[in-house]
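Got a spare moment? Tell me how you read both lines of this record:
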Amino acid sequence: MEIFTDIYLGDSKEKLTEIDENSVALIITSPPYADQRKSTYGGIHPDKYVEWFLPISKQLFRVLKPSGTFILNIKEKVTNGERSTYVLDLILAMRKQGWLWTEEFIWHKKNAYPGKWPNRFRDSWERLLQFNKKKIFNMYQEEVMVPVGDWAKQRLKNLSETDKRRDNSRVGSGFGKNISNWVGRDKAYPTNVLHLATECNNKNHSAAFPEELPEWFIKLFTKKCDTVLDPFMGSGTTLRVANRMKRNSIGIDIVPEYYEMVRKELKSTELYLLEPKVKYEKTKHKRRNSLRGKKHRYISRKENSKS
């Protein structure tokens, strides 16, 4: 089995045009938030954020398979004591662009930094917005099932007659339950809240998310040999996880330092480098670097297995 990893150096809006349409099974990324990462990505003003992102999301729509999914990790910031609305504005604009806003997951940061503010508490969660091109898409829910828990041992030990039939709710909600349906089950479907710690040991990127985050979505929305894309790859967390899980991957970043970091890491894992056969145009980004516009492909030859 051969698994490829393509990395591009340049502006996502431009580099995405070099990727085949309808070729990506999953897009998962965390773009720079409004007015943040100014030293690396320029710091987009909240009022300009939708205008900046829509050309990128247009290309993402083009490269995503009709059965694919786009997961966008993003969060509003607080300015002058009020939450910005740029994320909500972006959701509405993307819907007009043709995207379906299918679901919203929450990343609960178990180790959020402590602090004190006069009018709010510490931020301990971020949005993971799910967008799709079609109402029917690939989703492998069994891959992310979780243990039922110890509660089942005692609760299912001695079932009453009420537990063995669909008992109407006592609060008048109209919902009923049949507890006996849980007998013999050891796993259940998860909620849409992911309880994960932030990535504390990654000092090479200002906003790296934990490997468990892309891993969960890769399990949920892809199969082996599918292609995963991160148009703001940063330190390459998504690519690293995708390769380990035997998925093809594509990463793009405009920052030469991140591109070189990922390239060296891929090379150090003894993957096979294939030099690009075509020239790539230089981007119009203000920072100049001899690496600008390059693309590298790495092929990982993995043994065939059922795991």
